[in-house]
Amino acid sequence: MAEIPTTQKQYRLQHFEGTHGLTLFPSEPVETPQRKQVLVRLHAASLNFRDILISRGQFGSFSFPPGLIPLSDGAGQVVALGDEVTSFQIGDRVCGTFFETWQDGPITPDNVSRALGATVPGVLAQYRVFEESALIKFPSHLSYEQASTLPCAAVTAWSALNENGVKAGPGETVLIIGTGGVSLFGLQFAVRAGCQVMVLSSSDEKLKLAQSLGASFLINYKKHPDWEIKVREITNGKGVDHVLEVGGEGTLNRSLDAVRLGGHVHIIGVLAKSAGTCSGFGEKVLYSSVQMRGIYIGSRGVFERMNKSIEINEIKPVVDRVFDFENVKEAFEYLASGKHFGKVVIRID
């Protein structure tokens, strides 16, 4: 293995006004791992819509200090070990977990306070030191670019359909809203579980691609603006068992009309703005006995369980485009454009 350099390249957000604040620092120190820590040479990182919001200073009520290293999702190779590390060896291929301290069980405020690319430095760098407990080996059939898509998007989709007492399975119907990273992982996981999957998009081209991944029903919401009615027609008036809800207030009311009595609405994103369509949803939740859950990624334990399924089923993440490290701003702009189908990845090395 090549000698570890003393300096590295990394990106930082110097201010939060979009890509204008992204600055490449060409000669930052490479840290030495301490007790129970691991140094990883990062080879790829992937973008989530959260990263766009953070770069614009629009991530809820959160504020971040200038100099933040962005991005939560990366994959690389272990190149050095601190004392007392027992779970990894030099050469292992690994991902970091989205929340550094969330091992398993319910999420805690401490877990939330340790989120990569937000409250702690992210992965848009050539090297990063991780706590041993904040790393996980990724499935052997995946490339670094593919593995970099797992920590947020894949874990979120898996958590929605397979955790906390939920287990989507044969004979059930799943409505997937959109064709971004979380949505396509949800599609792949649901298909492998034997579910019938409907996909909602404004693009016929993207719907055809979703069909190639196993979607049974395709709905263009530009052609069917009252798409919840179409969902009811397809299910003979019953409604779907699960909705992966990425729109938030802009689509939630329609999702509640599309789900069956006692079904599940998994809120995994807030991409769509309200146009006065969210009124009355409380009554719909009550009288439909709908189970609504907010999915805030998942723990390291969830990540491990998901990886086993990905390995067994040889699932491959859908990567739309890969950008070079020098073209990070273009990657951000491409994701923000909404043209992507699946994940947008940055090749670091």
TrEMBL record:
<feature type="domain" description="Enoyl reductase (ER)">
    <location>
        <begin position="18"/>
        <end position="346"/>
    </location>
</feature>
<dbReference type="InterPro" id="IPR020843">
    <property type="entry name" value="ER"/>
</dbReference>
<dbReference type="Pfam" id="PF08240">
    <property type="entry name" value="ADH_N"/>
</dbReference>
<dbReference type="GO" id="GO:0016491">
    <property type="term" value="F:oxidoreductase activity"/>
</dbReference>
<dbReference type="Pfam" id="PF00107">
    <property type="entry name" value="ADH_zinc_N"/>
</dbReference>
<dbReference type="InterPro" id="IPR011032">
    <property type="entry name" value="GroES-like_sf"/>
</dbReference>
<dbReference type="InterPro" id="IPR052711">
    <property type="entry name" value="Zinc_ADH-like"/>
</dbReference>
<dbReference type="InterPro" id="IPR013149">
    <property type="entry name" value="ADH-like_C"/>
</dbReference>
<dbReference type="InterPro" id="IPR036291">
    <property type="entry name" value="NAD(P)-bd_dom_sf"/>
</dbReference>
<dbReference type="InterPro" id="IPR013154">
    <property type="entry name" value="ADH-like_N"/>
</dbReference>
<protein>
    <submittedName>
        <fullName>Predicted protein</fullName>
    </submittedName>
</protein>
